[in-house]
Write a structure and sequence with these properties.
With 254 residues, the chain is α/β, with parallel strands linked by helices. The chain has 10 helices and 10 strands. The strands form 2 sheets. It has a 6-stranded mixed β-sheet with strand order 6-7-8-3-9-10, with helices on both faces. Strands 2-1-4-5 form a 4-stranded antiparallel β-sheet, covered by helices on one side. The longest helix is centred in the C-terminal third of the chain and has 18 residues.
């Protein structure tokens, strides 16, 4: 559980960060959180609460959105990472699956997956082994491996996006709104795979989600964001039992 690990042991530590867009718009204010090695941590809140901005701050992609971290620090594997380039962070073990099921639509499913593996510059045999690992986790992708990704379903595209991220062999996956727009059965399938990857391969996850019940079913610990601030945190069990969670969540709807 994240709550029972010391801050020194955290794989990822975010301390009191503030993120400002265009030099004027405060999107995140004073957010602190930790992801322990081998943890699944949920970052909960309504649309606009600051979840995506927090993930982008961690992965370094916030600068591509005309924003900057104006205060606070981020440490990954004990090293300061606030100013580290996104490509280097990927090599170090952080991979970000963006909201919206980003795939290369004109490439096949397999070509999309291979593009994730190229980060490590693998040989042909290593790349093929990586593909077979992904196909073992996502059997339906193997069935669709020669299909252009743009012609697959929303759920399959989300699996492609996650599979491509896993091809980088990450220590930490930042997963942004994986349930968005998907049928409940597909959402449960994806979260179950996340749980199994965590349990069997030790991959850590920080999952930004609006779907509180499904996120807390699979997470160990959670943080609730509202208007860019952490308003509640606790173990998954504690949050599920806390009536204030619903107030914090429903207080910011679009």
């Amino acid at each position: 559980m994240a709550g029972s690990r010391s801050i020194v042991e955290a794989l990822l530590r975010v301390d009191d960060i503030e993120v400002v867009y265009d030099g004027a718009i405060l999107a995140v204010s004073g957010v602190s959180l930790a992801v322990p090695q081998g943890g699944i941590i949920a970052l909960l809140g309504a649309n606009g609460a600051g979840k995506s901005t927090t993930l982008k701050a961690i992965s370094g992609l916030v600068r591509a959105s005309r924003a900057e971290i104006s205060r606070g620090s981020i440490h990954f594997k004990g090293l300061a990472s606030t100013q580290t380039q996104p490509s280097l962070l990927v090599q170090q073990g952080i991979v970000h699956v963006l909201e919206g099921r980003h795939v290369f639509p004109h490439l096949t499913v397999e070509e999309n997956l291979q593009s994730g593996g190229f980060v490590r510059r693998p040989g042909r045999q290593s790349l093929q082994a990586g593909l077979e690992r992904i196909y073992a986790w996502f059997p339906r992708l193997k069935e669709k491996r020669k299909v252009q990704a743009g012609y697959t379903s929303g759920g399959e595209q989300q699996m492609v996006a996650i599979g491509r991220a896993l091809m980088t062999r990450p220590s930490l996956v930042l997963l942004d709104e994986p349930s968005m727009g998907l049928a409940p059965l597909i959402v449960e399938e994806i979260f179950e795979i996340v749980s199994q990857l965590n349990a069997k391969e030790g991959v850590s996850f920080l999952v930004a989600e609006q779907n509180i019940p499904v996120a807390l079913k699979h997470a160990h610990y959670g943080y609730v964001l509202e208007t860019g601030r952490v308003v509640l945190s606790g173990t998954a069990h504690e949050l599920l039992q806390n009536n204030a969670l619903q107030d914090a969540y429903l207080g910011k709807t679009q």
